[in-house]
Design brief:
single chain, alpha/beta, inorganic pyrophosphatase (n-terminal core), six-stranded mixed sheet, 11 helices, Oligoribo/pAp-PDE_c-di-AMP_PDE, DHHA1_dom, Oligoribonuclease, DHH_sf
Length: 311
C-alpha cells in the first residue's frame, strides 16, 4: 500500500491535497507539510493545497485556488478526514486517483487507496513516518507544519495518543531548527472576544451526576461577546480539568445547525458522535444536531457511557 502510494505520487504531474472542513492544526499542518515536502522533492510537479482557511490558523500558510477542470488528470490526496461528508471541497473525489491518509478509525473508505493508522497521534505524525520510509527530505518549512499538527492533536503532548514514536518524530522535526516560540505564540494567542467568552463558559458549566460537563452557546450569546463559532470551538478544553469530569460537550448554535464538540477522559464517545451525524476518535469527536431541543438527547447518551465508566 505505501509503495503503491509512493509510485502514484512519483507518476503524477498534478497533485491536489485536501483535508477536512473547518480545519484544525493537524488538518492544515499535514496538508501544508506534505505539499512542501513534495514541492521540494519534485519541483517540476504542480502541487496544490485546496480548501477554505480557518481565520485563527491563517498564520500556517496560504491555500491555492483550484479549478474544477484540474481534477480529472490529478492525483488527489485527502488527509485527516474520516468520512466523505467532512471533505473540504466538492471536487475532491473527481481526481484520476484518490488516496486517503488518516489516523481516525476507517469507517468510511471513500478513496481508491486507503492508508489509515489509528494508533498514531495525528495525520502529521503518520506522514512523517511515511516520508521517512520513502527517504524524502523534510525541510524546515514542512517540519514546522508537521510539528504544529502533532502539537494540536496531542494537546501539547498531553493526550493518551502520544507515544514514544510521537516524541521521536517531534525530536526529528525540532532538529531541523524550527522556531517553536513563533509557533506557540501564533497557535495560542487569544482575541479579547474569545477570552471574555471563555469567562462566560467557565461560569455556565453544567455537570451531571454521571460526570458529564457541558456548555451551550447560543447565537445570541456569541453575538453578545462578538465571538465567532470558530473562536468558540477552541474553548472545548477550557474546563477539562474540572474535578469529577469524565466526558464533556460544547454546543455551538449556528444559523443552520448546532455543532457539538465532544471530549472524554476515558468513556468512548465516538459511538455517541456517530448517533448524532458525527464521528471521530474514541476520546475526541464531533457531531451535529439540528437545533437546541436535541441537546438533552446528546447529554442523555453521554450520561449512559460516562455512568458505566470507572476510573
Amino acid at each position: 500500500m505505501k509503495e503503491q502510494i509512493r509510485q502514484l505520487i512519483e507518476q503524477a504531474s498534478t497533485i491536489i491535497i485536501h483535508r477536512h472542513e473547518r480545519p484544525d492544526p493537524d488538518a492544515l499542518g499535514s496538508q501544508f507539510g506534505l505539499q512542501t515536502v513534495l514541492q521540494h522533492q519534485f519541483p517540476d510537479k504542480k502541487i496544490k493545497a485546496a480548501g477554505e482557511m480557518a481565520t485563527s490558523l491563517a498564520f500556517m500558510g496560504t491555500l491555492d485556488a483550484v479549478e474544477t477542470d484540474e481534477y480529472p488528470d490529478a492525483l488527489v490526496i485527502i488527509l485527516d478526514t474520516a468520512n466523505e461528508a467532512r471533505i473540504d471541497g466538492k471536487d475532491a473525489l473527481r481526481g484520476r486517483q484518490t488516496i486517503k491518509i488518516d489516523h481516525h478509525p476507517d469507517e468510511d473508505p471513500y478513496a481508491d487507496i486507503q492508508l489509515v493508522d489509528p494508533t498514531v497521534s495525528s495525520t502529521s505524525e503518520l506522514l512523517v513516518h511515511l516520508l521517512n520510509e520513502w527517504g524524502y527530505v523534510i525541510p524546515e518549512p514542512a517540519a514546522i507544519q508537521f510539528y504544529a499538527g502533532i502539537v494540536g492533536d496531542t494537546g501539547r503532548f498531553q493526550f493518551r495518543g502520544t507515544t514514544s514514536r510521537t516524541f521521536s518524530v517531534a525530536a526529528q522535526l525540532l532538529d531541523t531548527g524550527i522556531d517553536t516560540d513563533w509557533l506557540y505564540r501564533n497557535m495560542y494567542q487569544t482575541e479579547l472576544a474569545a477570552l471574555q467568552l471563555q469567562g462566560y463558559v467557565l461560569q455556565h458549566i453544567e455537570l451531571t451526576e454521571a460526570g458529564v460537563g457541558y456548555v451551550v452557546l447560543t447565537q445570541e450569546t456569541l453575538k453578545a461577546f462578538n465571538a465567532t463559532v470558530e473562536q468558540a470551538s477552541l474553548l472545548v478544553n477550557s474546563f477539562a480539568g474540572l474535578k469529577g469530569l469524565k466526558a464533556w460537550a460544547l454546543f455551538l448554535e449556528t444559523d443552520q445547525e448546532v455543532r457539538v464538540r465532544l471530549r472524554s477522559k476515558g468513556p468512548v464517545i465516538n459511538e455517541v458522535a456517530k448517533e448524532f451525524n458525527g464521528g471521530g476518535h474514541p476520546m475526541a469527536s464531533g457531531a451535529t444536531i439540528q437545533n437546541l431541543t436535541e441537546v438533552d438527547g446528546v447529554i442523555s447518551r453521554l450520561n449512559e457511557v460516562a455512568g458505566a465508566f470507572r476510573f
